[in-house]
FAD/NAD(P)-binding domain-containing protein
Amino acid sequence: MTASTDYDVLVIGAGPAGLAAATALGSAYRNFAVFDSQEYQLCRAAAVKDISTNYPTVTFIDTVVEIATATATAVNQMYKFQVTSTRGGHFRGKKLILATGSKDVFPNIPGYAELVHCLFCDGFEKNDSPAGAPGLGSLQDLASVLMAHHMSNKPLTIFLNGESPTREKDRKALRVAEARNCKVNHREIRLLSRNSGNGYVLVEFSDDSQC
């Protein structure tokens, strides 16, 4: 569609939340723009392409939003929001959706950043593979761990990476995970890499063992 600076809806973010909003808005035939900072995993590029192809009323704008403001001074004012990009562009919208998501903070494990896997993108397609969750931080977000366990047809292992839970909250979470048939591995991880044969993740431990 022809580029414009006025839209029914402005969507900031092209991650899972932003793309879900884009699908709903496209189905409703709303004229909207999605601001895409390009800071997402490559698997989402396919979803962006699908939405662009199937919904003619969407405009993806590859830029970072620097300022978002509410501009309405009257109840009947049509365009109530304005965003400014780092490139200096100004865009107005009747509605504004903040779908900026969250920033990944990876555990300090060599090889992890190259292997990180997005359940939103292809969790269903890979549900016949074993799953693993690294570090004590996994116990602090137990709901996500159990979701991964639910999505996998194979066992899920929590890798504590040489750490032991000291807080009662973490110990309780570990007991819950074990009660849900999650496995627990206490060994320290030295390296994560991709097995070229079957595509699985190869875990190398500090004691020279592997799994």
